[in-house]
Design brief:
This protein has 352 residues and is α/β, with parallel strands linked by helices. Among the domains are: 124 residues, Rossmann fold, CATH 3.40.50; 121 residues, Rossmann fold (3-Layer(aba) Sandwich), CATH 3.40.50. The protein is built from eight helices and eight strands, in the order E-H-E-H-E-H-E-H-E-H-E-H-E-H-E-H. The longest helix is centred in the middle third of the chain and has 18 residues.
Length: 352
């Protein structure tokens, strides 16, 4: 008899009614993307239904294999410990029931593009036309006692900073770790940028979102010479919902854990979209061996004939057969922010 699969979206929970409503909207969006499954949801704490309630409903309707995912951005204590504990305890109490646990949203091109959309939305509503290189990005993470989760927020910030071409970027946190929002924004204000975009990398509203915006207003009042822009949080952005749905399907299909999942040649990396599909090849084979002990001793010239072809069938977990050729002139695809005032252009002699 075939297994009957159901999906369980496990949220943290909040005392804020708006956050609970938004979580419900996200759960419905996930269900719309997975019409082949029954989808239920529940919370760890602070709100109902709890996770056990959702599991009861799925089991009661005949599901014997539940695909559970954490409704969270990153894997810290809740995703790593609390939710698995609830799921494992429940599975142990019900013979014949299998619960498979998927991963958090994590660092994903879809999440970065969704965040980029929210930031662009805020920039488009701004009154002043300030150049991007004179605009600073401050990404606000939740903050956790797990440094791995905290470091992920910094990676998100860097991908957004580089993808959109901001002048500078910083990461602050709403609690638990450092730097917190107010001292972080005070530090940012001293760097001399004309405009600062504050973007909460959060899924849902709540007390913390309100505090982030309140601290932004407070620091802005102390620095009237700087334009502060409050960007909206992620919420139910379509790409966020797409990413959640992927986390469910990859439980059964398996996932690619290699960093190629963020590869600019394979995914639409923010700011580098036109590089998807470019042929991957080494630009260093021209100089292989140069500088080694026998390279010059036998008088050989390393001026190779580059008329040979390169098939480049990479054998490393995925095949980048991008089908686009280009000449071997040691040319790299142009960097989208090559003229950034704080970037490569600043190293040129004529820029001084």
């Amino acid at each position: 008899m075939a297994e009957k699969y159901g999906v369980m979206v496990c949220g943290h929970g909040s005392r804020d009614e708006g956050a609970v409503r938004e979580f419900g909207s996200v759960a419905r969006g996930i269900a719309e993307r997975l019409p082949q499954y029954d989808v239920d949801s529940g919370f760890l704490e602070f709100a109902t239904p709890i996770i056990r309630d959702g599991l009861d409903r799925l089991r009661g309707s005949g599901h014997d294999h539940i695909l559970a995912i954490p409704g969270m951005l990153f894997a810290a204590g809740h995703a790593k410990n609390d939710i698995p504990s609830v799921l494992n305890t429940y599975a142990a109490q019900h013979d014949g029931l299998t619960i498979s646990y998927g991963r958090e949203l994590g660092i994903d091109p879809k999440m970065i593009r969704a965040a980029g959309d929210r930031i662009r939305q805020a920039l488009e509503s701004a009154e002043d036309d300030v150049p991007m290189h004179e605009t600073m990005l401050v990404v606000v993470g939740r903050g956790a006692s797990d440094p791995d989760a905290n470091s992920n927020v910094t990676k998100v910030m860097r991908l957004l900073w580089e993808g959109l071409g901001f002048g500078w970027g910083e990461t602050v946190y709403s609690g638990v770790t450092f730097p917190l929002v107010e001292p972080g924004l005070e530090h940012a204000a001293r760097l001399g940028y004309k405009r600062i975009v504050v973007f909460p990398y959060f899924l849902f509203t709540g007390v913390l979102i309100n505090r982030i915006y309140d601290y932004t207003d407070k620091v802005a009042a102390e620095h009237p010479e700087i334009e502060f822009i409050k960007a909206p949080y992620l919420n139910d952005h379509p790409l966020v919902l797409d990413c959640f749905a992927e986390r469910v399907t990859e439980i059964l299909e398996g996932t690619n854990n290699m960093n190629c999942g963020m590869c600019k040649y394979r995914e639409q990396a923010l700011g580098f979209e036109d590089e998807v599909g470019l042929k991957q090849e080494s630009h260093h084979h021209h100089v292989e061996g140069i500088g080694t002990g026998d390279a010059g001793a036998n008088g050989h010239s390393h001026d190779h004939d580059h008329s040979h072809s390169h098939s480049h069938d990479h054998d490393h977990a995925h095949g980048h057969d991008h089908g686009r050729s280009h000449s071997h002139d040691h040319h790299h695809h142009p960097y989208p922010h090559a003229d950034h005032p704080l970037g490569p252009v600043s190293m040129k002699e004529d820029s001084k």
